[in-house]
Write a structure and sequence with these properties.
The structure is a homodimer. Chain A is built from seven helices and nine strands, in the order H-H-H-E-E-E-H-E-E-H-H-E-H-E-E-E. By secondary structure, the first copy, chain A, is an alpha+beta fold. Chain A has two domains: 64 residues, Arc Repressor Mutant, subunit A (Orthogonal Bundle); 153 residues, 3-Layer(aba) Sandwich (Chorismate lyase). In chain A, strands 3-4-5-8-7-6 form a six-stranded antiparallel β-sheet. In chain A, strands 1-2 form a two-stranded antiparallel sheet. Chain A starts with 12 loop residues before the first helix and ends with a strand. Chains A and B meet through strand 6, strand 7 and strand 9 of A and strand 6, strand 7 and strand 9 of B. Strand 6 of chain A pairs antiparallel with strand 9 of chain B, so a sheet runs across the interface. Chain B binds a DNA duplex through helix 2 and helix 3.
Chain lengths: 244, 244
DNA sequence: AAGTGGTCTAGACCACCTG
DNA sequence: AGGTGGTCTAGACCACTTT
């Protein structure tokens, strides 16, 4: 294994180590679920002292890219992004069980990205995008309508698959079929009165309040991969924050 | 200065130091804005090594209780909690300037705390609480209706002040008049259709969507100090999160 | 028993800020 | 110039997990 470290010499060593480790995760040399080399091995390989190596690892743990287990090792974290909506919506049935909602693709087409979407995904004006509309349901009750936009270039493989075979976990599909791994995301929450179309899809009364979540998902290389806007009934919504 | 450290001997030293430092901040021996002793002094006073003292300080910096400045020192952070609503609501006028909204106390009374409030504030059943209703406005436009509950015992001094003299920053008043300093908070967001009373106060249409923010504020000693529920028009609301 | 991360030491030298 | 936090070293010993 070659331990090249160009980077910027002005940066502290622990920063350069952090970047080097992050690059290995991004480059799939260290894969999700795998153990990374032990601290002792990293010390030897990079010629840094244990404290410095640990500080670099600390940062990646804080970033959510690594996970430590005393006595076992340090592992690349498996991301479960499909479940982030659990932060916002109560995806539970009456018994209080938490379940993965079903997913139904209502539409999939290839269009020129609207300028707002192109800007978010950093695509040149006029670039093509895959647009999908997806309905999420729990026990056949609609919970969320999602409008999803993907850069056509990276995700062209999706156009060859029957939408009935997409399954319930889209990000797993991105990874398998397109080699695109979602590493982080930004979300913006707003609320509005539901319009006629979404009222029909969500089977709620016209004008009822809905929560709108806009999400921009990024790969390990910090390039935007996906933009989506999701709407769900406000009475199914609850979000908790701690402020310091 | 006595450096007693009872605590739990099974805890790592850096944890015990963290707790000791946190206690000094809670006990106002280290006051907001003040520099704490230098790392070298803490090393000498506690007989720990520099790395261990730094780790304890690191934790309090991450908790937002301390702030470090290279070359200057480490300081107890001044909290500006009154501005947390800026996270959620657009407190801006047409020119985009960010302003502190005006505040108007609509009601202040002393009542037996309802059981939900008593539970949140960890008060015994039947304990008395101060209940206030406050309206926040920007350029005379209502933005937020707040229902606030305080343990009567700690906040009795508020009952002696004319509500017109409360000013726009409630947490500063708690500190000045009652010696109660808010150190952290938890907030839960939900949304609903506005009821008749709040529609009138907020001057919006009946049934329009409103965001509901419930906040429980804690002191440095981690005791709950205040519970409040705020409602504002959904179209003034926007919240942004990063997910990793 | 062997191997892993967790805690802790006792310094050194550097970068930055203040008087 | 003197003092502060920032970085880094080169270990030691402990707690926990796995074989």
């Amino acid at each position: 294994m070659s331990y090249s470290m160009p980077h910027d010499d002005r940066l502290p060593l622990y920063q350069r180590l952090r970047d080097e480790f992050a690059a290995r995760i991004a480059g799939q040399q260290w894969r999700p679920g795998d153990a990374i080399p032990t601290e002792a091995e990293l010390v030897k390989a990079f010629g840094a002292s244990i404290g410095t190596v640990r500080k670099a690892i600390d940062m990646l743990v804080a970033d959510g890219m690594l996970e430590r287990f005393q006595g076992r090792g340090t592992f690349v974290r498996r991301k479960r992004f499909e479940s982030t909506m659990f932060r916002f919506f109560r995806f539970q049935n009456e018994a209080g069980e938490r379940r993965i909602p079903q997913a139904r693709i209502l539409r999939r087409e290839c269009v020129v990205a609207p300028s707002a979407v192109a800007a978010a995904l950093r695509l040149p004006a006029g670039a093509e995008a895959i647009q999908m509309t997806r309905l999420r349901l729990l026990d056949d009750t609609p919970l969320l309508v999602e409008s999803i936009w993907l850069p056509r270039e990276r995700f062209a493989a999706l156009l060859d698959i029957d939408t009935h075979d997409f399954g319930d976990l889209l990000y797993a599909l991105y990874e398998e079929r397109c080699g695109q791994v979602v590493a982080s995301a930004e979300e913006t929450l707003t609320a509005e009165s539901v319009d006629a179309m979404h009222a029909r899809l969500l089977q709620i009364q016209a004008g009822a309040p809905v929560i709108v979540v806009e999400r921009l998902a990024y790969g390990y290389d910090r390039q935007p991969l996906e933009w989506r806007r999701s709407r769900g009934p406000a009475d199914q919504f609850r979000y908790h924050v701690e402020i310091r």
